[in-house]
Write a structure and sequence with these properties.
The chain folds into two domains: about 200 residues, inorganic pyrophosphatase (n-terminal core), CATH 3.90.1640; about 120 residues, Diaminopimelate Epimerase, Chain A, domain 1 (Roll), CATH 3.10.310.30. Helices cover about 40% and strands about 20% of the residues. It is built from eleven helices and twelve strands. A six-stranded parallel beta sheet has the order 3-2-1-4-5-6. The chain has a six-stranded mixed beta sheet with strand order 7-8-9-10-12-11. Strand 11 and strand 12 form a beta hairpin. It starts with 7 loop residues before the first helix and ends with a helix.
């Protein structure tokens, strides 16, 4: 693996060259994909197609209903033929191979692995070509830079996928990770002909009724502790059954907990199965939830991270609360 040490411009050029040489490319992002993961997947796939490759879009969890408006989203598959082979695999929005999911097939890894990611938590040996920039507000920004490096012109479909990626990971350009380059990329995508309202409406204002029923249930679990600085939400399998919702409909719920006045850290615990919980963490300012997530084998950004914990709900909450309260005490 040689990608970790390359300067950003050199890594982007190497990634573009690898895609130019490739005949077959698989593009994959992390499991439980969000708007950045799938927007980047679709966009990177269109870049590779423009360079002449045969492209497979993959995600172990498929495409959530809320993102089915994305061009080519109907082409995302969750399994591969056993004889499938790829010249290049592009891993997006994560830089740990296990984040592609336990069900990611071994033959999905191509002869060359390219990774584009912006998370702090990473494996420097993840790929042969590693495009890594923690200053980027979204992986979509890196895919945009890859398109530029590869000489691929923006069309409306490519721009729509990229705009979805940047819009969602910047919280509609509200988060502290938003930088001048984020706005400049957004402007370039608007000039390519996208309708900003159409994308925002699809992402934020086409809410399935089961999601609202689930949210009403989840908000009833809100607890605030640590002198009002820590807020927690819990989502159980029973809540999914009652509402008719699924796990893809929980994206953004944790932000309701963080929005409580005085709260600096929010945690959302989603029951995945018997004594197994996915934890989503959000914070404000200089409070690092990436460190907490890494302590439990996960990772992410300073203000947004996640991990998976085993144990009873009481044990998971106790361990998580202790770690988060220690983090808050040190700030």
């Amino acid at each position: 693996m040689t990608g970790a040490a390359r300067p950003l411009g050199e890594a982007l050029a190497a990634a573009a060259a690898a895609l130019r040489r490739a005949t077959s490319v698989l593009v994959v992002a992390h499991e439980s994909p969000d708007g950045d993961a799938l927007g980047s997947t679709v966009a990177c796939g269109r870049v590779a197609k423009a360079l002449g490759a045969r492209v497979t879009l993959f995600n172990v969890d498929g495409c959530p209903d809320a993102l089915r408006f994305l061009p080519d989203s109907d082409q995302i598959v969750s399994s591969l033929p056993p004889d499938a082979r790829f010249d290049v695999t592009v891993l997006l929005d994560c830089s740990q191979r296990h984040r592609a999911g336990a069900r990611f097939p071994a033959n999905g890894w191509g002869d060359v692995v390219v990774c584009l990611d912006h998370h702090v938590t990473h494996d420097p040996d993840v790929a042969d070509i590693f495009v890594h920039d923690t200053a980027a507000a979204a992986t979509g920004e890196l895919v945009y830079q890859l398109a530029v490096a590869a000489g691929v012109a923006l069309d409306k479909e490519l721009a729509t996928a990229l705009y979805c990626a940047v819009l969602t990971d910047t919280g509609s350009f509200r988060y502290g990770s938003t930088r001048p380059e984020s706005m400049e990329i957004g402007a370039a995508l608007l000039r390519a002909g996208i309708n900003a309202w159409d994308v925002a409406s699809q992402v934020y204002e086409q809410v399935p009724l089961p999601r609202l029923r689930l949210l009403a249930d989840v908000l009833g679990t809100l607890e605030v502790s640590c002198a009002g600085r820590l807020a927690t939400l819990v989502i159980t399998r029973d809540m999914f059954d009652r509402s008719g919702a699924d796990e893809t409909m929980t994206d953004g719920f944790v932000n309701y907990a963080r929005s409580v006045r005085g709260v600096e850290v929010a945690a959302q615990l989603v029951e995945l199965g018997p004594e197994r919980y996915r934890v989503n963490l959000r914070s404000r300012g200089s409070v690092s939830v990436a460190d907490v997530a890494a302590h439990f084998g996960g990772g992410g950004h300073l203000n947004a991270a996640g991990c998976t914990l085993q144990g009873s709900l009481a044990d998971v909450r106790a361990a998580l609360d202790a770690a988060l309260e220690a983090t808050l005490a040190a700030v």
